Amino acid sequence: MYTIIKHLHMLLAILSLAGFMAxxxxxxxDSPRLKTRFARVTPHxxxxxxxxxxxxxxxxxxxxxxxxxxxxxxxxALVLYIGLGMVAFRFAGTTAGRVVAWLAAITVFIxxxxxxxxxxxxxxxx
Length: 126
What we know:
The protein is mainly alpha-helical.
């Protein structure tokens, strides 16, 4: 069961990043596709499933009994990623601000992935 949930979590992470990148490109192009129901709902469904699968993995590992530093780092980075995404898609007043926030969010996502892979707060570049 653990392997299935882990692979589901990894797949959802890839889908989440791909969707975030696609929405960012569409936002920069000012595409009307961003207003479709699919574009508005799908990211929330994927990200909710991603979070739930992560919580399930943490429960399987009994992380609730002793919080690991790398997991705390991932959670803090997740909040930063969400904040940067909000700036990129809602609050940035200029295109340059959107691009900077969007690229910073992608960088934070890569950090989250690196922490998940290495279980280190400061992962060594590979």
